[in-house]
Amino acid sequence: MTQATGSAGAPVYGFVGLGVMGQPMALNLARAGTPLVVWNRTPERAEPLRAAGARVAASAEEVFARARVVFVMLVDETVTDAVLGRGGPDFAKLVAGRVVVSTGSTAPEYARGLAADIEAAGGRFVEAPVSGSRKPAEAGELVAMLGGDPDTVAEVRPLLAPMCRETVHCGPAGSGVLMKLAVNLYLDTTLAALAEAVHFAQRQGLDLETFRAVVDSGQLGSGITRVKVPMLAAHDFTVQAATADAYANTRLIADAARAAGIATPLLDLSSELYGESVRLGNARLDMSSVLTAIEARTDTAPPPVTD
């Protein structure tokens, strides 16, 4: 297959998966002038990319036919395997001679297996899971944790500049997603704790704007508190990172921890809360909806014992 080139003869790059994170990431590439061909399972998600000058492909196969480097940002491992045709006769034809850049969160053993299969088929693989939610993705402020062969990582790294403010090479395939799991452990438990603190303040009758001001004025103030405290106070769960994805990430982290014999007591408690929020119907709402699980526990708790 011959790779297409842009109007100035520049190589065309591919992007498959235009969800909550993938769409703004691809838009930043297109707006930076990167010749881009994109595809998404839900076609209307590709329309903003068309408006930004990207070519919208009719299939993932067309993306791989036109681009030598393809970014893949799909919801989970099952969907990734299905889109790539992994395990089927067309997989090798799709990835041979291509660099596949996986930007989603997966299990480390999955990343290693996918890397081995792509390399056996004549392709190359870089994992580049990103830290950040929708707003950092829109602002091009993500942090990518790269795993793979150093030469291939060096080739891919400059392409990430429109999407990421930092790129860190963590080691061979599997290292990047392990680093992402470690970062997500911190994020998931921190957000659950922040939601519990907001719940405590609200139920004690404190003014939540004052609570926000105090938190942001001290050493605990961060990008998370500045974005999430107003959302928690208003029960605004407009999706930045979905609750179902946060819950799935906690399970990935727990699985990796158990395989290594590592205890994760805070993660385990947080995972229970994210799972409860999913069961309350919040799967596709923002992960800050974990607040509703905490509220539900308060509302169903026995009344305090009084003398």
TrEMBL record:
GO molecular function, one term: oxidoreductase activity
Top EC class of this enzyme: oxidoreductase
SUPFAM superfamilies assigned: 6-phosphogluconate dehydrogenase C-terminal domain-like, NAD(P)-binding Rossmann-fold domains
Oxidoreductase listed as a keyword: yes
InterPro entries per the UniProt record, alphabetical: 3-OH-isobutyrate_DH-rel_CS (IPR002204), 6-PGluconate_DH-like_C_sf (IPR008927), 6PGD_dom2 (IPR013328), 6PGDH_NADP-bd (IPR006115), HIBADH-like_NADP-bd (IPR029154), HIBADH-related (IPR015815), HIBADH-related_NP60_sf (IPR051265), NAD(P)-bd_dom_sf (IPR036291)
Signal peptide feature range: none
Keywords: NAD, Oxidoreductase
A Pfam family that the UniProt record links to this protein: NAD_binding_11
Residues of the 6-phosphogluconate dehydrogenase NADP-binding domain: 14-171
Domain spans labelled 3-hydroxyisobutyrate dehydrogenase-like NAD-binding: 174-293
Origin superkingdom: Bacteria
Keyword NAD in annotation: yes
EC number: 1.1.-.-
Sequence similarity: Belongs to the HIBADH-related family.
Full protein name: NAD(P)-dependent oxidoreductase
UniProt source species: Streptomyces sp. 900105755
